[in-house]
Amino acid sequence: MKKNKDYTFKYNQNLGRNGWLRLTPAYSVKLVEEILGDDNLFSEKKISSGTVFDPFCGTATTGIVAAERGLDSMLYEINPFLYWFSTAKGQNYNSADIDNQLKHLNKTLYSAHYSQYCKSWTPPMKNIERWWNSVTVEQLGKLHEFLIEEIGRPTIQPNVSNLAWIAFARLVIESSAADFGHISVSFKDTCNSYEEAELLSLFVKSLEYISESAKRPLKGNVKIISGDSRDVCLDDKVNYVITSPPYPNRISYIRELRPYMYWLGFLNSGEEAGELDWAAIGGTWGSATSKLSSWECDTNWFMPTCLTEAVNKIKESDSKNGKTLAKYVLKFFYDIYLHFKNLTKNLKDGCELYYILGNSSFYGNMVHTDLIVCEIMESIGYENPVAKIIRKRNSKKELFEFQIEATWHIKK
Ligand SMILES: C[S@@+](CC[C@H](N)C(=O)[O-])C[C@H]1O[C@@H](n2cnc3c(N)ncnc32)[C@H](O)[C@@H]1O
């Protein structure tokens, strides 16, 4: 089994809207395309009607691929930045509005007014100097303030100005010392210095790319809902669920996304970061970890045998952190159970479900996500849950990504 990069976010980099931001949590367009089946007129395996639901939409990969094929989708996301980004990514834009904005920003950013503009802003991020050096922060802060004056802040309402904010988000990462060579973001040894001209040129280049791809209309409708997938409540029942929930591996989406979230105003303090992470499945950043220690599991839920075994082994394997990590794993799967249980009322008879998930290991003790999820699904009444390995995740030989498939039939 290979580390197939085609099944990660790397595959999406130049694929129109799906290449707008490089976000580690995103899965590959190819995965969704393969699930939807060959998009050719005469293909037998092809999903060509019905509504698709993604309860953990992240960057809306599922919704965009579905919409490009003319399928309508509904997506849930709990992270406010990803909710905003997905909403902007899933909208159709007017080409004339896009061209006008590009022309206007090109004119004003290269004017005497901009070069003499002296406002700047620094986001309240801890250890900001690890991300950008002082020259770059100053220049990013200047562009930030200028954009607010020219186009206003990011909005949830459809507005072409969101495209410029997405270009700004790209710039924030391109000019940083972030290193994406690992699962979780790390830092290069040095931060480059970006002067005004270089930064503006990077910004305009990104804006041109984003603007051009935003002109290509989406055939299907993408509806994003800001909500918690442990308690899904949709207006209409759906035919397909295609998704990738968080994995039980302690990756925090708030931690990974913090540069975007601070710069774009979706996060204002470390305290808020902990709160947002606690609200998400699998969050353990900052105060979320201490909240875990007082969390108690409902003792009446169906707990798979292999989960009980893994939790007990993790608890006993390390006297310092074992108890907390065992609770982390338990809460993760309890939340996944709540999701599957409450999801059923939103599913049409015969609904097909496709979940991409990874396993993990704590102190050498395997957490068999594939087996645990299949057992949870079966206990709720999903039919024939099966897991197949789709990819080896990293150099550790036991870490894989799985595709879990099942069907739902309404009980008579
Ligand atoms: C693996 S990522 C999904 C990535 C997505 N497939 C993509 O291509 O961008 C999991 C997502 O679930 C979201 N999430 C975590 N807990 C959630 C909850 N309770 N309700 C809704 N979304 C949640 C996270 O914020 C994250 O964006």
Structure description:
The longest helix has 22 residues, at 322-343. The relative contact order is 0.13. The radius of gyration is 22 Å and the shape is globular. It folds into two domains: 5-90 and 221-253 and 267-408, Rossmann fold; 95-214, no CATH class. Helix 4 (95-109) runs antiparallel to helix 8 (196-214). The chain is built from 14 helices and eleven strands. Strands 5-2-1-6-7-11-10 form a seven-stranded mixed β-sheet, with helices on both faces. It has a two-stranded antiparallel sheet with strand order 3-4. It has helices at residues 29-36, 61-68, 80-89, 95-109, 112-116, 134-151, 161-174, 196-214, 253-263, 270-279, 287-293, 305-317, 322-343, 369-380; strands at 52-54, 73-77, 178-179, 186-187, 222-226, 238-243, 347-358, 360-362, 365-367, 383-392, 400-408. With 412 residues, the chain is α/β, with parallel strands linked by helices. S-adenosylmethionine binds at residues 25-27, 56, 58-59, 61, 76-79, 82, 228-230, 244-246, 253, 280-281.
